[in-house]
Each structure stands twice: as C-alpha cells, then as structure tokens.
C-alpha cells in the first residue's frame, strides 16, 4: 500500500515538473523543440512556430531534419515556406520528456548578426582592396614620374641637337637635310609634349608637384596663352579673340606658369574641336558667385578665365568623364583629333592645387564653355626679373656670341630706326607712307631681341641642347609666323617681304661688324652665320603664314599684285 502510494507520488511529481518545464519553455524567446530518440519532434514552443513559420501541430510528429549532437553551438539554415532562408544557431542538451529520453534543441535566429558580420568582413575586404589599389596607384605614379623624366632627358637632347644642326653649328646642310632635321625636331617636340603631360600627371598623383602661389595679373596670362595658340587657330581658319582689360584691374592668386599651361590646354582643345570659320574667345574677370558645380568654398571673390567656342560640343553624359586621365569625348579610330587625353585631367588637378577649379558647360552642336576659377588677389609690387647668366667658358669654340647678342640688344632702337627708314624708301610696300612706325617695325623688335638671346644661350651652353634654346626657337618661329600674317593684312606682296628681310639682314650685319670689331673676326663670322640661317628660316616661315592669310594656293603671290 505504501509502495503504490510512493509510486503515485513520484508520477505526480514528474508530471508537475514536466508541466513546469513546458510552461517555462513556452515563455522562452528562443525556439525550443523536443526531439525524441527517433529524431521525431515531440514538442515545439511558440518561438519555434514563429521561427519555422509553421504551427506546433504541423511540426510535432515530423522529422527534425538536422543532425543533432551535443557540445558547442552550430549554425544551420532554416528554409521557411515560400523560400525565405534564415540563419539559426542550434544548441542541444539531453533531457527526459514524458518519461522518455529526449533532446532539448534551442534554436536562435542569428540572421541579423551574421549579416552584420558579413558586412564587417566586406568592409574590411574593401578597405584592404582600396589600400592595395592606392599602393598600386602610388607605385604607378612613381614609375611614371621616374620613366617620364628618363624619357624627357634624351628627348631634349634629340631636339636640341636637331636645332643645332638646323642652325648650321655643325656645318651647312643641304635643303633636303634641313627639311629632315626640321621633321626630327617637330616630331621630338610633339613627343616631348606628351611626355611632359605624363610627368605632370604622375607628379600630381604622387603628391610631388609643387605650385608657387603668388598674386599675378590676369591680363598677362590671357595674352601669353592667346599669343601661343594664335598660329594654330589661324592655320585651322578659326577666329581667336581675347577680351583684355586694364592689366592692373584683375589679379589672381596662383602659379603664373601653371595658369598659362591651363589656358593653353583649354584654348588648344577649343581650337581643335572647332571647324574652320568658327570662333574661340578667351575672357577674364572677377565674380563673387562661381558656378554651383565648382568645388570652391562659399564666399570670397574669384577671378575667372572663360574659354568659349562654337564647336562640336560635348554630350551631357561625357562631361564628367572628360576630366579623367586618357579620356576623350570621342574615341576610337575615327576620332578627329590626336592627343593623349591628359590635358583636361592635368588642368583640373592643377587648378585644385591652386585652390581653384575648372567647370564646363556644353551643348552638342553649339559649343562649349570651360571656366578656370582661381582666388582673386590684389596687385603685388614685385621688381623686374633679372637674368642671371652662367660663367662664360673661355675655351668654348662659340666664345664671343654672347657679346654680339648683347650688342644687338643695346643697338636695337637705332637698328629699328634705320630699318624702317630703308623700308619706306626701298621696298614696294603698299601705302608705306601712310603707315605708322610701329606698323612697319611690327614684330621686328621682338624677333631681333629673341635672336640676340639665342646667341647668348648658344655661348652659355657651349652649343649644347637646352630647354631655353628650345623655347627661344619656338618663339622665333611664332614671331615670324605672326609677322607674315600681319603683312598679309596690310596687303603686302611676297616681294616686299623678301625686301624687308634683306634690309634686316644687312642692318644686323652692319651693326655686328661695326660694334663687334673688338670681339674678333671668328666670333663675328660665327654669329653672322647663325643669324643668316635664322633669318632664312624666319623668311620662309613668314612667307608661309603670309600665303595662308592671303588665301593663295601656291604659297606665293606675284609681286605687285596685292591680295
């Protein structure tokens, strides 16, 4: 009797304990299922119903479907009806359920935690990839900067020696040899321009490009850039105008050389993508309201340079890409103009280095307007730049050329007086009597000054190639080209141009022989040989520009027959 009573008490106690356990399990936030030894679900709490998106009745009596083992937690993928997948963390403990051995399985939804961990891993992978890409980009920039420098050094030598040959320093060249040397120099200058662009881009990306910020007049930068591009515009039949105001009225804060480089890039692009008969303009001014798309701080006064053309325009979807390196709005084999696609990328980087920016607005078929924005500045009183020459080498075979160059500089005013007087009297110049002194002298003063400078450079470098000589030769050709175009506007003839170059040659020789007698005959003869060669080149360049401007087909016009 007592034994039966004890057994009954134990069963009652066990039922009470199971009810208490069931009540606790039903209140838990984690999904709980009781799985029998045969792998069949005996019980599922409400949290398990929600996790599996199935009722307890549909879960109980079915196979659990996951491997059950004691120990640490494991992750499983739970597929709900409809295909939605959750990630759950599963834990198993041994238990007794309704008097039989069973396993209590705890299932916790860790989908959000897993996604967060995956996002963190993805962010870390992206950070590592970005760091690797930046390191690779720095290595590329360092490589480009080094290789561009290594390429530029021999290229300067090639161009320099070609110019020395062209000047006749190594002996007289036959006409065909001169043409071939000119082609070498022209190709070398083109290649050097591409290498310089690569070098600038690499220096900017590598953080090695320094800009020298100082107040500077906007008019000087505008005039210098327009002067350099004018021959290109004339050759393409494009009208180039520069709106100038009082040079002291508008100043900017920036690097003069880099600002001129940017304007040359913008003008070159505008001319290249404008058909003959079109118009390119350069204007500058100041504004307190820059374009909204410019990356500039609010407030302050800004100096702007705006290059406007009525060319082909740029599609709207290309406006952002044209400032990326090696990108042109038109690409492929059919693109109408050559180039590296670096000009705009370098220009914007330079502008931002100077705390400014470049913006663009364009309409296909109507043209484009590129605007360089720079901080405005007040005029800066700076003394005139002085030329510091290197010591002369007494043993140089070109000794004395610098002295003759100095003589030409000193005698320039008197030389021009005699030149203009003889021009009026001896040359068939239409309307010469009514022309002003400045119209007849025209570019001759600039040309003779540049010629004198070349003589000085030749001695100081001992006839070796130099960047100064390269620049002087470019100026030499530019002045001669502008001179020919000006003579065409005055309705001269090619005979008159021949005549004025003859007079100029004779007057230079007279001054050199009179004033340079004490220097020595070898130096005088060497200088006059260089001068003769340069004058011959200048006359040919002027006649070609004259023919283009006059609209002749043969490159020459009969004497006495004004255009």
Helices and strands, with pairings:
Layout: H1 2-27, E1 31-36, E2 41-44, H2 46-52, H3 56-59, E3 74-79, E4 85-97, E5 100-109, H4 111-166, H5 175-205, E6 214-217, H6 218-236, E7 239-242, E8 251-254, H7 256-272, E9 279-287, E10 302-309, H8 343-353, E11 357-363, E12 367-375, H9 401-410, H10 412-426, H11 437-441, H12 444-460, H13 467-489, H14 494-515, H15 521-550
Parallel strand pairs: 7-9
Antiparallel strand pairs: 1-2, 1-5, 3-4, 4-5, 6-8, 9-10, 10-12, 11-12
Please name the defining characteristics of this protein:
single chain; 563 residues; Beta-Lactamase; five-stranded antiparallel sheet; five-stranded mixed sheet; 15 helices; 12 strands
- The CATH topology assignment of the largest domain is Heat Shock Protein 90
Mean pLDDT equals 78
Helix content: 40-55%
First-to-last CA distance: 144 Å
Q: Nearest-angstrom radius of gyration?
A: 42 Å
Q: Can you tell me the overall shape?
A: rod-shaped
For the record, the count of structural domains works out to 4
Number of separate strands? 12
CATH superfamily of the largest domain: Histidine kinase-like ATPase, C-terminal domain
- Which strand order spans the largest sheet, edge to edge or round the barrel? 2-1-5-4-3
Largest sheet: 5 strands, antiparallel
Note the quaternary state here.
single chain
CATH class of the largest domain: Alpha Beta
- Helix count equals 15
């Amino acid at each position: 009797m007592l034994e039966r009573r004890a057994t009954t008490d134990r069963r009652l106690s066990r039922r009470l304990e199971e009810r208490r356990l069931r009540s606790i399990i039903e209140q838990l936030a984690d999904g709980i299922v009781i799985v029998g030894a045969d792998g069949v679900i005996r019980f599922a709490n409400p949290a398990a119903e929600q996790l599996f998106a199935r009722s307890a009745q549909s879960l109980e009596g079915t196979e659990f479907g996951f491997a059950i083992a004691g120990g640490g937690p494991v992750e499983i993928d739970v597929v709900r009806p409809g295909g939605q997948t959750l990630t759950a963390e599963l834990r198993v403990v041994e238990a007794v359920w309704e008097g039989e051995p069973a396993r209590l399985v705890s299932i916790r939804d860790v989908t959000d935690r897993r996604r967060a961990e995956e996002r963190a891993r993805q962010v870390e992978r992206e950070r590592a990839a970005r760091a690797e890409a930046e390191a690779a980009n720095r290595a590329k920039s360092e490589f480009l900067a080094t290789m561009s420098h290594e390429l530029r050094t021999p290229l300067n030598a090639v161009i320099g020696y070609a110019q020395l040959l062209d000047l006749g320093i190594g002996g007289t060249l036959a006409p065909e040899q001169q043409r071939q040397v000119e082609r070498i120099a022209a190709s070398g200058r083109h290649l050097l321009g591409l290498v310089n662009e690569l070098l600038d881009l690499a220096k900017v990306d590598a953080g090695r490009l320094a800009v020298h910020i100082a107040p500077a007049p906007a008019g000087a930068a505008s005039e210098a850039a327009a002067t350099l591009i004018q021959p290109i515009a004339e050759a393409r039949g494009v009208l180039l105008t520069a709106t100038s105001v009082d040079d002291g009225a508008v100043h900017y804060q920036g690097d003069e050389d880099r600002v001129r480089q940017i304007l040359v890039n913008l003008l070159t692009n505008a001319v290249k993508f404008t058909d003959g008969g079109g118009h390119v303009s350069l204007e500058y001014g100041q504004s307190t309201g820059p374009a909204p798309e410019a990356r500039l701080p609010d407030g302050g006064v800004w100096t702007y340079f705006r290059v406007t053309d009525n060319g082909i325009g740029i599609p709207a979807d290309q406006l952002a890409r044209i400032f990326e390196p090696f990108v042109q709005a038109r690409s492929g084999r059919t693109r109408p103009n050559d180039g590296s696609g670096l000009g705009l990328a370098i220009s914007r980087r330079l502008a931002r280095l100077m705390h400014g920016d470049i913006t663009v607005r364009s309409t296909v078929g109507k043209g484009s307007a590129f605007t360089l924005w720079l901080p405005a500045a007040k005029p800066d009183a700076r003394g005139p730049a002085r030329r510091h020459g290197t010591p002369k080498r007494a043993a140089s075979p070109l000794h004395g050329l610098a002295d003759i160059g100095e003589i030409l500089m000193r005698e320039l005013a008197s030389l021009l007086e005699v030149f203009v007087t003889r021009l009026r009297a001896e040359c068939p110049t239409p309307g010469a009597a009514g022309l002003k002194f400045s119209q007849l002298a025209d570019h001759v003063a600039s040309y003779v000054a540049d010629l004198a400078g070349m003589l000085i450079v030749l001695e100081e470098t001992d006839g070796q190639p130099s960047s100064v000589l390269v620049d002087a030769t470019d100026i030499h050709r530019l002045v001669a080209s502008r001179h020919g175009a000006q003579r065409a506007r005055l309705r001269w003839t090619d005979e008159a141009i021949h005549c004025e170059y003859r007079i100029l040659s004779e007057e230079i020789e007279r001054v050199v022989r009179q004033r340079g007698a004490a220097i020595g005959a070898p130096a005088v003869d060497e200088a006059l040989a260089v001068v003769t060669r340069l004058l011959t080149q200048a006359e040919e360049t002027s006649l070609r520009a004259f023919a283009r401007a006059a609209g002749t087909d043969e490159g020459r016009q009969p004497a006495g027959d004004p255009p």
